[in-house]
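Researcher: Please predict.
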Amino acid sequence: METKEYLEQVKQLDAEIRFREDEIIVLRGRAEGITSAQNDRTKVKSSRAEDRLDAVLDLLDRQIAAQREAVCRLNEKIVEISDEITKLDNLDEVMCLTYRFIRLLPWKDVSETMGISERHLQRICARGVAHLDELRSKI
């Protein structure tokens, strides 16, 4: 796996977690809608509505479990990649790679934080990726 792809794994896991959070919100809304529709009707519960509710709750449970697992994978990947990044000798490269690939900050925010232009920041980051690639190839 290329070093840039390796670093981008945090971004991919973060996107997966955000997607699952959205899905959980939608499923909770569906479950609440089914429940409130049941409560608005007579006290006799329909088995069809109960079946739909059970299906939604089951899917919700699976999404929550998958999200928890994704959060664990994200945390493990952050630790792994952070350990690799901190092996670099140049502090600017460490900071740049950490801000961009661990904290997922946009270029503008990183350049403001580090007090340098975005162009210079991108050069530092490219150097950091190259140096990290060298370290990873030695392993």
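Model: The mean pLDDT is 91.
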